[in-house]
Every structure is written in C-alpha cells, then in structure tokens.
Design goal:
Tetrahydropterin Synthase, Chain A; 193 residues; 2 domains; four-stranded antiparallel β-sheet
C-alpha cells in the first residue's frame, strides 16, 4: 500500500469513528434514535385510544343507551310503563304438612331427665312435595327423635336456641325428602320440662 492510500484509509476510519462518537454523544445527552420516538408516540396514541373508547362505552352504559343495544335491559317502552305493564305471577298459597307430636328425653345428667314435647308444621315449596314427605315420614320422625335426644336443655334456651333447632330440623327434613324442598319449620308448641 502506498502512503497516500494509507492516509486515505486512515481518514476514512477516523471519519467513521467520529460519526459513531457523535451518535454516542447524542445518546448520552438524551437524544434517542428517531425509530424509538415513533414507537413511544404509537404507544401513547394506543393508550389514549383505549381510554377514549372505555370512557365512551361507560358513558353510553350509564346514560342507558348501550344496555338495550346489547339486549341486557327491557325495551324503552316497557321501562317507561307506557305500552305494557309487567304481569306478576300469582302468588302461590303456602303448602303445609302437620307433623305428629314428638316427645323426647333430653341429654342431661341427673336422676330426673328433662324432656321436650314439640308439635311442628313443615312449609313446603310445592303441593307435590306433600306426597313425598308423607311417604318419608317414618325416616323423618326417626331423624328428629334421634337429634332431639342428644340435645341439652341449655341449647334450647332463648330465641337463638329455637332458631338453631329450626335450622337443624329443616336440614334433616330436606335430607329425607331429597327431590322435595322444605322451606321452613314452624313450631306450633314447644315444651321443655
């Protein structure tokens, strides 16, 4: 290589290094390549667009314009009550089943065992449930008697004791009459002596 070729080559390398140094200095000074700025702009625009659409959707929902369009609300004329009034189903009369009187000794220490006499009535969900429960009556009375014999007199005191007893008897009745449903247990008479 000749001296002039070497000098030209040296200038070329120095020129490249100077160009890279300018880019490095610009990056350190806070300047970024133009491609990154456009990426940040795109991200900001995308987030802004999502926020705008979310705000617009929320506003339409709150004002009541969007629910009828999505089918989640009644039509406007039914909501105003101008065209048709909603027809409420006729209330069903309650269905009751009387249980025989149950007398059971309570679990208490001492010579004289206290006893519980209870007369109750079951409230049923449907009239068809009466036949199911009448067929299961021996099992139901057995479950009730067994449960009552394990109770202590202290457990029956106050309204909390009566409520607990009602819940337990209702759970046992629903267990025995599986397809049928017992809504409530009503106490006609309860005597602890």
């Amino acid at each position: 290589m000749t001296g002039s070729a070497r000098a030209g080559r040296r200038q070329e390398v120095v020129g490249r290094m100077a160009g890279n140094a300018k880019l490095a200095t610009a990056a350190l000074a806070g300047g970024a390549p133009p491609a990154r700025k456009s990426g940040k702009k795109k991200l900001i625009l995308l987030v802004g667009l999502l926020l705008l659409l979310g705000g617009l959707g929320g506003g339409l929902w709150v004002t009541g314009i969007l629910p009828p369009l999505l089918g989640t609300a009644p039509p406007p004329e039914a909501a105003r009550g101008a065209a048709a009034e909603p027809v409420a189903p006729a209330p069903r009369p309650p269905v009751y089943l009387d249980l025989p009187e149950i007398t059971a000794n309570l679990n208490a220490p001492g010579r004289r065992a206290p006893f519980l006499r209870i007369r109750s009535r079951l409230e049923l969900a449907r009239p068809e449930d009466v036949a199911i429960l009448q067929a299961a009556m021996p099992r139901l009375l057995d479950l009730y008697s067994t449960y009552l014999r394990e109770m202590r007199p202290e457990e029956l005191r106050g309204s909390a004791g009566t409520y607990r007893l009602r819940e337990e008897l209702m759970a046992r009745a629903n267990l025995v009459a599986a397809p049928a449903r017992v809504v409530d247990v009503l106490f006609m008479e309860m005597l602890v002596q």
